[in-house]
Amino acid sequence: MEVLESSYKKLMDKVKNLLIFQSAVSIIHWDMETMMPPKAINIRSQQLALLSAIEHRMSTDPEIGKLLDNIMRSPHYEELGHIQKRNIYLIKKQYDEQTRLPEELVAAIAKQRAITTDVWKKAKAAKNFSMFKPELEKLLELEKKAAEILMEVKQTKTPYDALIDIFEPKMTAEAIAKVFGELKEGLVLLLRKCEASLKKPDTSILQRRVPIEIQRKIAKELAKTVEYDIESNTAGGRIDETEHPFTTGYYDDVRITTHYHENNFASSIFSVLHEAGHAIYEQNLNPEWIYQPVGTACSSGFHESQSRFVENIIGRSKEFWSYFLPKLKEITGNILSDVSLNAFVHAVNEVKPSKIRVEADEVTYCLHIIIRFNIERDLFAEKISVGELPEIWNQNYKDYLGLTIENDSEGVMQDTHWASGLFGYFPSYALGNIYSGQILVQMEKEQANWREQISRGNFSPVKSWLVNNVHRYGNLYDPADLIKKITDKELDVKPYIKYLEEKYSKLYDF
Ligand code: ZN
User: CA within 20 to 30 Å of 69's CA: 287, 321, 323, 489, which one?
Assistant: First the structure.
């Protein structure tokens, strides 16, 4: 038992160092996006290259393999607690994957991702897919090689499943296709009802000019409302500005960014709420598990369930705005003084098919994801080729959303994910919405008056429910087990569709 205990302790010390190291690297990335002066880019790339080489060495240290062996072969292994066993499982999974991928392949992928991302930016600006195509083809070949290796290590059925597993452990394309089929059916039906309604929101109120300085004040007030502390002397958060909003950090230092548009103030409102949802999750992982693999988020889908919960289920609800609209009017002076609660709530919940995923409403958002998922799966199954992407993309947008894509920049080249090698990530966005619907049903059972609390600006009961029932579990379970633990149900689309149906039938009178 003593040998086992000392091996476990040594292993956890190594992992602790790695997690601290990674959190330092993430701050350097954050600085690069928010604060770094332009001239620093060369020195910064060298810093990042060195840091990533060190990180690779740390995470593939043969000593980790030896310690894992000692632990797993110990006659006392079964005496370990389930948290310790989960840590070992997560470390072994990561270690096996990292060590099985040949270093040359990892380096080639990193290099090609940088090239493809760079070319994607230029091709997108030039609306020219043929510029992007050869680099994406090269990247896809490399990613396929890695996926085939990972398929063996992870023992998945297909290479694409191995990629999905990176973001949503144990999830498969087959399981996703099944829930997405049901999701699509429900969403298309809802979309038709909203489109058929004669009641349309006046969205021009959202285009009224709100100076950036005032929008910064709104962001602060929003953070305060959802209890994402950026102001007190014990604050663990802050808000900075970047072109694309993101969240980064761990436990007591979790930062978010937003982007202010003078003629679209709602954009920063919902990005702040979205990112604050991510941040609150990271800040409220079990404090006893800091620097352990169990003390990390469950999956990308679960992360998204928390951001979408705060952004949409809370932040686009009538109750939230019955509290916040008077505040918004106060902060913005006379800009919105004539706007009624109903008009505002309908405007921020307009349902309208759009070409751009990140601008999509709650009803059409997942349709964008389903399109991307089908394409990715077929790419990796070699049913379609990179050259066919624009045509397939445009046909799908016609079929699903009734839209005509004019050029590939508003079509297949709109997102950075494929250019930066994030294949297998897209399904997480829709899974996050599905989880959020199931989580809402459960929360309503235990916090029946949450809407009333929110309408008084009291986010505390909702937040502590999420902390105790979602965040605190960290990475103790795989997503399928966690949703079961929280809701006592398997992954199920119906609660999300029901939530949308109830909300939009009121807004659109159907
Ligand atoms: Zn997000």
Answer: 287
